[in-house]
Amino acid sequence: MAYQNKQDPDVRSRDGAQPAEPAAGQPKDLIGAISDSFSAGKEIFVDAGEILLDTATEHEVLKEVPVVKWLTSAYTVRDAYQTKRLERNTRAFLSALGTQAPETIHRLRDKVLKDKKFAEEFEDTVTAIILEASKPLKAALLGNLVRAVADDSLDKASFEKLSQLIHSSSVPALRAIPSFLLANENPYKSGIGEIPEEPLIMSMGLATRSGTMFRMSRDGEALWRWGFRERPID
Description:
The protein is mostly helical. It is built from 11 helices and 3 strands; from the N terminus they run H-H-H-H-H-H-H-H-H-E-H-E-E-H. The protein has helices spanning 30-39, 55-62, 66-74, 80-97, 102-113, 116-132, 136-150, 156-168, 171-183, 198-203, 218-227; strands at 188-190, 207-210, 213-216. A 3-stranded antiparallel beta sheet has the order 1-3-2.
């Protein structure tokens, strides 16, 4: 990862200084920052259509969202480009999570924090995608997966697998999933000749071909159902 975790006690900054601690009043974990984002005023970010602001105003709004503040505090975000990417991806992530009841978010937090291994995987993957994704599509897909975990539609093992697929896949490959499924009534297609989306979907390991039959895997179908929510994402 191209970012330095300033909260890791084993990591020092380039000038040798001790890592920074979270600002007073800020949560010590990412899931806490997500929870606080909803408590702080979800109307700020839930409906992306409501934040059609000029760049400067949007920055002033988004920089106060707890997830943005936590990631900026916890990791070295070195320039304006990285800051803009962080804010854009956070907005897509939280917008995908949508309007959740407080008890749903609290249940999600408990589910994450009660499993140390899952908590580490959750923070690593969510942080990597929000900080590094070149397009907000990945952050939106991730937000939908977290939403599915929160409402008990998706188990933790499936979340880990699908979120890591999102992180490692190219944006064109991810976009090939809705392109193929919306053009076909089923997650498979039989016929002579290569399907246009086939190389991209195969590159993610989400499909197989046997003779003339091309079939999307169950993981591919799960990503369509829980990541895309069975609709294309811009």
